[in-house]
Amino acid sequence: MKPLEGVRVLEIASIGPGPLAANTFFELGAEVIRVNNPNIVNLLPPSTDPSLENRVNVTIDLKNKDGIKLIKELLPSVDILLEGNRPNVMEKIGLGPEEVHAVNSNTVYIRLTGWGQEGTMKEDAGHDINYLALSGILSLLGKEGNPPEPPINLLADYGSGTMFAVISGILGIYEVKSNEKKNLVYDVAMFEGASYLGSLLFGLKDSGMWSKSRGTNLLDGGAPFYRCYETKDSKYVAVGALENKFFKELIATLNLPSEMVSDQMNFEKWPEHTNLFSEIFLRKPRDEWADIFNNTDCCVTPVLDLDEARVHPHPVSRNSYHNNFPRSNNILIQKEEENTSGDIRSIFNELNISKEFIEEVEKSGTLSIE
Question: Which CATH superfamily is domain 8-197+340-369 in?
Answer without folding.
Answer: Crotonobetainyl-coa:carnitine coa-transferase; domain 1 (3.40.50.10540)
